[in-house]
Amino acid sequence: MHVAIVGSGPSGLYTADALARLWPDVEIDVFDRLPTPYGLVRGGIAPDHQSTKAVARAFERTLSRSGTRFLGNVEIGRDLSYEELKAAYDLVVFSIGAEIDRPLGIPGEHLRGVYGAAAFVGWYNGHPRHRDLDPLLDGKALAVIGNGNVALDVVRVLAKTLAELADSDICAHAAERIGAAHLRDLYLIGRRGPVEASFTPIELAELGELQRCDIIVDPAAVSAEVGPEVPEKEVKVRQRNLEILRSFAARVGDPKPMRVHILFNAAPVAVLGEERVTGLMFERTRVVEGRAEPTGERFELPVDTAIAAIGYLTGPLPGVPFDEKRGRFANDEGAIEPGVYAAGWCKHGPRGVVGTNRTDAGVLVKRIAEDFAANPPAGGKPGSREIDLLLRKRNVRVVEFAAWKRIDAAEIARALPPKPREKFVTAEELLAAAGD
Ligand SMILES: Cc1cc2nc3c(=O)[nH]c(=O)nc-3n(C[C@H](O)[C@H](O)[C@H](O)COP(=O)(O)OP(=O)(O)OC[C@H]3O[C@@H](n4cnc5c(N)ncnc54)[C@H](O)[C@@H]3O)c2cc1C
To answer: Which of 296, 291, 268, 282 is nearest to 104 (CA)?
Structure first.
């Protein structure tokens, strides 16, 4: 059985793990377009959340299994086509995530100083594609639009002092810029109310621990209660969020040099400015049955930079059936075509934490096993043999697992303690560190 997994993030690697348990002799090639594995564990999860990133150790064991290969720096759709994968492997699983920022869809969003969270987070986390984002952090006010954990991450990283970031793996270029910024007011803005916010309580509470930052919440804005429309399993989390927000609203003490303002019930309707953002226009909303409804009342917020953290889309790949409306691969419970499946964010959209992908992978692999039992594959596919020939013919510089480990060791070796690693942030640097 020859298997190709496209994307070495959590969903791809948990799927590889589950497949290896199902079929101990399976040969798995895990492709990634980056020379580095682990997807958003490296390039998304906040640099000051090192304990969450430690899941990479388990993924390392998955990639070290004999019979599993890592083929980094190989982009499907560029270096190999969908048709070539289908011709070579009995089973193809796409797990390419959702790396494109969902647009705000309002006038002015293309002005200078407006960024999507995928790009901004990729910039501070050293994703080679976003290394040169060069975000404008020269003003006093910055808004983050979104009410999820990604929005919290962005605000927290910007609000921390360099001392607070010292034991994180934030990239040097980003730490330098954040350290030199003179931001005073950070706004965290949600379209809906505090009950609907999708923060997790631990991350929300963490905002309250920032050394140089006050958290400003209007007590009236957090007076709502969790209503009967909230699903039972969500009630505790929502109540805990409300408690934390109310504790922020009740705070007294000496003012700190920075402020995070948490605003609710404000839907962005326009980005203001001529060439560069100078402000945002919002319409106040009220929540009806969990949905934000406009009230007709508008207000403006002067800001120098705006970051939209409102969700992600998967980019289409030539030949792979795509659901344009939802921005992900067209699939039925993971099945794209016979022998082709989707896992993780490119299957169901950008939701869930790392661990969610593990549960999902188990369900997907059970489904694959059932499909293959009902319709056994014809067999006789060449697997890696054919793919290696194609890659060699096309002069693709494949970064295998041992080469990734050289990058890993070099990043750790060059970091100044207590920093755990200093990432290489361009393709050239990464390939140089990978060696021959
Ligand atoms: C900013 C941010 C912070 C987060 N923080 C946390 C957190 O603190 N804790 C937590 O539990 N979860 C967190 N999550 C959620 C978690 O990261 C996701 O659940 C998980 O990464 C989704 O896994 P995935 O495999 O579907 O996608 P990804 O992790 O995005 O992996 C996709 C992989 O596919 C590769 N790829 C893409 N296109 C191609 C192609 N054409 N050819 C080859 N390879 C390709 C990419 O390079 C990438 O390595 C966070 C998410 C984000 C966005």
So the answer is: 268
User: What's this model's pTM, rounded to 2 decimal places?
Assistant: 0.97
Q: What is the pLDDT of residue 409?
A: 98
**Single-letter amino acid code for the residue at 110:** H
Please give the Cα distance from 426 to 436 (Å, whole number).
Answer: 17
Distance, CA 44 to ligand 1 centroid (Å)? 7
CA of 312 relative to ligand 1 center, distance in Å = 11
Closest-lying ligand 1 atom to the alpha carbon of residue 11:
25
Q: How far apart, in whole angstroms, are the C-alpha atoms of residue 270 and residue 5?
A: 41
**Using the 8-state DSSP alphabet, how is residue 34 labeled?**
S
Q: In what order do the strands lie in the sheet with 291-302?
A: 266-273, 277-288, 291-302
* Banded model confidence at residue 264, pLDDT cuts 50, 70, 90: very high
Q: Distance from the CA of 7 to the center of ligand 1, in angstroms?
A: 9
Of 50-54, 75-79, 205-209, 229-233, least confident by mean pLDDT is: 229-233
Residue 292: both structure tokens together: 């934000």
> Quick check: helix, strand or coil at residue 352?
coil
Query: Which residues have C-beta atoms less than 6 Å from ligand 1?
Result: 6-12, 31-34, 39-40, 44-45, 49, 52, 75-77, 95-97, 121, 150, 153, 317, 344-345, 352-354, 357
> Is the pLDDT confidence value at 339 over 90?
yes
CA of 125 to the centre of ligand 1 (A): 13
SS3 state of residue 178: helix
Residues 386, 88 contacting (CB under 8 angstroms): yes
C-alpha 344/C-alpha 204 separation (Å) is 25
Residue-range domain boundaries for the chain: 2-99+314-434, 102-312
Q: Which fold has domain 102-312?
A: FAD/NAD(P)-binding domain (3.50.50)
Q: What is the CATH number that goes with domain 2-99+314-434?
A: 3.40.50.720
Q: What percent of the chain has pLDDT over 70?
A: 100
For residue 229, name the pLDDT band (cuts at 50, 70, 90): confident
Which of these, 224, 221, 206, 81, lies nearest to 149 by C-alpha position?
206
Q: Give pLDDT tens digits for 20-37.
A: 999 999 999 999 999 999
- Choose which residue among 8, 14, 45 to substitute to test ligand 1 binding: the one with the highest number of ligand atoms within 8 A of its C-beta: 45
Q: CA–CA separation, 389 vs 384, rounded Å?
A: 8
